[in-house]
Amino acid sequence: MTSKKILLASLALVSLAACQPNQDDQTDEKDNEVAYVQSDQAKDEYEHDHDHDHDHDHDHDHDEAHGQEVVVKILADSYVSAHGDHFHTYSGKVPADALISKDLLVADYSDDQVVSDLDGGHVVKQGEEYLVYLDKGQEADQVRDLAAETSDQAEK
């Protein structure tokens, strides 16, 4: 009779262990997620529809411009880039060769405001804002006007 109780107790424990989910295989998905940032202001200024169904007259420049990541906001320890119809946030400094939104440009700065260097310019902090000074201003190759690109794409 004692062996029957031991056998039943063992079977009950094995059954419970088999029913319990395997927690070792579960991973914390938060470690693998990309942080997307989309503020109301940025959404209003830069959001647009993108139609992937194109006919023979498709403008390939549209795809090239749409695939570029353009820095739209600079923070103390990170920056936000627009990529098509969504945004990405990255830790660290703005890359020296980054494409810059026209909205971030500033006409003048003082040497004590320089935070980091870019190709042909600097990231500067004026007040609480991080902005970009470029030697060539809006004429620089890395400047993008996202508002104009959005309206151009809406017309197509």
Automatic annotation (TrEMBL):
Biased amino acid composition, Basic and acidic residues: 41-67
Disordered, as annotated region: 22-68
Keywords noted in UniProt: Signal
Keyword Signal among UniProt keywords: yes
Cleaved signal peptide residues: 1-17
Highest taxon, organism lineage: Bacteria
InterPro entries documented for this protein: His_triad_protein
Protein name, UniProt field: Uncharacterized protein
Organism lineage string: Bacteria, Bacillati, Bacillota, Bacilli, Lactobacillales
